[in-house]
User: What shape does this take?
Amino acid sequence: MDADRRDLAAMLHPLVESLIAMELPILAEHGISMWAYSVLSVLDDSPIRTQAALATAIGADKTRIISTLDALQAAGHITREPDPQDRRVRLLAITAQGQKVRRSARARIQAAEDQLLSGLTTADRRAFMRVARLLSNLSH
Assistant: This one.
């Protein structure tokens, strides 16, 4: 252990703040919030179907995401249908338009991330991304 190193949160916080600041204008150009992008990402990448499962997947209280879901549905990015097995449950699905918006935003965000990481060697960039994936999976 390196007793002289800074805590991980102290080291990563400036990077996370920079990433958020970089993403917000891109998301605004696409007419979505950070929460909306999280919702679209989960629905585009996985078979999550209920509002409760979605809330768990993005780390939000299920009542907190209702306004986000309302906005996404009004914009035509998702559908919410009653579950035929339990009409109290809403089944979620991303629409083709929602996929287009999410994928366009993701491409722009990843291009900006690539620019941010361009100062790293290819090997360091690959190692950073590998470790970021591992740490992300550990925190869930």
Residues 8-29 form the longest helix (22 residues). The chain has one domain: 35-138. The CA atoms of residues 82 and 90 lie 5 Å apart.
